[in-house]
Each structure stands twice: as structure tokens, then as C-alpha cells.
Amino acid sequence: MQRILILIALMLGLAAPAAAHGPPRLKTSAEVLLDATPEEVWAVIGNFGDMSWHPAVHATEGGSNEVGAIRVLSFDAAGAAQLSEELTRYDATARTYSYRIAQDVPQVLPVTNYAAHLTVKDQDGKALVEWRGAFYRGHPNNNPPADLNDDRAIEAVDAVYLEGLEALVARFGRMN
Question: 122-138: per-residue pLDDT in tens?
Fold first, then answer.
């Protein structure tokens, strides 16, 4: 009988951590069909070390198209607002790369454990640009402050994606 009680206590003890959980992994994506060939668009956005096409990025340092490369994005002239991103996958033939934020800086982008994919697909000879990301909010515990909650995280990443895609529309034009 004592063995059964010990076994039940052990099972309950192991089950308790499974009941606890943190914030959900959030996902968002954006896409646009451009009036340009996939090759033309890839020539502009396919270099991991060059984010000059994105208006929010003031400067890009480092980075190459080798997996493991690190780029540092500066969002202001002083370099006070920066993110370091690591290239995790690169396929020029498929016109896609994946990257992650190497060190979380929720004051710059209110997320943690961010990973994203940027892809240019061929849709009847035109470029379909897809930008997808997955991440956690900037505050890992319960009851996050408003500037680090789920809604703010999604809103901030969406704004980055949309601003970048709108810059591509300005450059190449949008297909209806």
C-alpha cells in the first residue's frame, strides 16, 4: 500500500509541471505580389547582409549569405537601437532565407525567441514576397506590461513586415 501511495505521489509530482505553461508562441506573416520578376526582387532583398531596401533600417553591419553569419541592424543614426540577427538557412536557388534574433532586445522589438523566413516565389512570372515570423512576447511571465504583451509583439512585427513590403511596392509596383 505504501508503494502505491509513493507511486501516486510521484506521478502527481511529475504531472504538475505539465499543467504549468508560459505565453503562447505567436506567429504572423505578410505577403505582397510585385510587378517584377522573382529574380529582380531577389537581387534587392536576397543579400542577408544588406537591409538597405527596408526604410526602418538605418544601417546594416556584417552579415553574409553563409549560415551562421551575424548582421547588426541599426534603426537610428546613433546606433542606439540595434538588433543582431543570425542567418540560419539560405537557399539562393529557392530564393529564401531564414534568420533569428541572436540576442533579444525587447526595448527595440518587443519579442523574444524571434525567428523568421523571407521568401520570393514565382507566381506566373511575378514576385510573391512572403515574410513569416514566430516569436514570444517581450515579457515571458504572466501579466506583462502593455508594451510587452502579445498584442504589442504582433503589432510591432507586423509593422516591420508591412513597412518593408510597402517599400518594395514603391520600388517595383504592386500587382492586383
Answer: 999 999 999 999 999 99
**Cα dist. 10→2, 15, 91, 153 in Å?**
12, 9, 48, 38
Buried b / exposed e across 103-137, counting CB within 10 Å, b at 16+? ebbbebbbbbebbbbbbbbeeeebbbbbbbbbbbb
CB–CB of 174/30 below 8 Å? no
Q: How many CB atoms lie within 10 A of CB 89?
A: 11
Query: pLDDT tens for residues 54-111?
Result: 999 999 999 899 999 999 999 988 878 999 999 999 999 999 999 999 999 999 999 9
Establish how many alpha carbons lie within 13 A of residue 109's alpha carbon, considering only the half-sphere containing its beta carbon. 29
Place of cell 510591432: 156
Going along the chain from its start, the domains and CATH numbers come out as: 23-172 (3.30.530.20)
Q: Which three cell numbers stand for residue 170?
A: 514603391
